[in-house]
Design brief:
The protein has about 190 residues and is α/β, with parallel strands linked by helices. It has a single domain, classed as Pyruvate-ferredoxin oxidoreductase, PFOR, domain III (Pyruvate-ferredoxin Oxidoreductase, domain 3), CATH 3.40.920.10. Helices cover about 40% and strands about 25% of the residues. It has eight helices and six strands, in the order βαβββαβααβαααα. Strands 2-3-1-4-5-6 form a six-stranded mixed beta sheet, sandwiched between helices. A hairpin with a 7-residue loop joins strand 2 and strand 3. Helix 1 crosses helix 7, helix 5 crosses helix 8 and helix 6 packs across helix 8.
Length: about 190
C-alpha cells in the first residue's frame, strides 16, 4: 500500500530539507520512495508543495486529491489551500504561523481568521503547533521544518532513532545541535 505525505508551505521555509530528511528516513525503512517538488514563486514567498510517496513499490510521485495520509503545513493558509488533498482519516500537522500572501500585503484581501478551527469543523483531523516558538526555543527560527517533522515522527510507525540518524546524516554539522533540539521539541509536543 502506498502512503502519501504533502509538505506545504511558503518559499524559504525549509521544505527541501524536510523532504530530504523524510526521504532519508523512509529509505532507511526499506521503502520505495518518490518525491515531487513543485516550486511556485518560491523565491518570492509563494506557495511550495513537496509530495513524498512511499510503499513497497511506488510508480508515480504525483498526489491526487483525497490521497494524502498526512499534510505537513509550515503555514496556516497553506493547510487550508491543500486540504482537498487530504484523504478521509488523514491528518494535518500545521504550524500556526501566518505569512501574508501578496494579496494581503497589497491590501486586496484579508488573511482568514481561525483557519485551524474551520478545517476541524470540516471534519479533518488537525494538529496545530506553534512551531515557530519551538524553533526559536531550539535556537533558530529556521528550524520550524524540523519541529514539524518531530511532531510527524511521533505519529509515524518507525522508531525515533531512525529520525535522529537521518538528521545527523543530512543536516550540516554547524546546524546539527539546533535541529536535534528542534526535532526533540516537536517529538515531545502534545496537544
Amino acid at each position: 500500500m502506498v502512503k502519501t505525505i504533502l509538505i506545504v508551505g511558503v518559499g524559504g521555509q525549509g521544505s527541501l530539507l524536510a523532504s530530504r530528511l523524510l526521504g532519508n528516513v523512509l529509505l532507511r525503512q526499506g521503502f520505495d520512495v518518490k518525491v515531487n517538488e513543485v516550486h511556485g514563486m518560491s523565491q518570492r514567498g509563494g506557495s511550495v508543495v513537496t509530495v513524498v510517496r512511499f510503499g513497497e513499490k511506488v510508480y508515480s510521485p504525483v498526489a491526487e486529491k483525497g490521497s494524502a495520509d498526512y499534510i505537513l503545513s509550515f503555514e496556516s493558509l497553506e493547510a487550508a489551500r491543500w486540504l482537498p488533498y487530504l484523504k478521509e482519516g488523514g491528518v494535518i500537522i500545521s504550524n500556526t504561523q501566518k505569512i501574508d500572501p501578496m494579496p494581503v500585503i497589497v491590501g486586496a484581501a484579508k488573511y482568514p481568521e481561525n483557519i485551524g478551527e474551520k478545517i476541524y469543523v470540516l471534519g479533518a483531523d488537525i494538529v496545530e503547533v506553534n512551531a515557530l516558538d519551538l524553533a526559536v526555543k531550539a535556537g533558530n527560527k529556521r528550524a520550524v521544518n524540523v519541529v514539524l517533522l518531530g511532531v510527524l515522527a511521533r505519529r509515524a510507525p518507525f522508531g525515533k532513532e531512525v529520525w535522529i540518524d537521518a538528521i545527523r546524516e543530512t543536516v550540516p554539522e554547524r546546524f546539527l545541535e539546533v535541529n536535534l533540539m528542534a526535532f526533540e521539541l516537536g517529538y515531545s509536543y502534545s496537544v
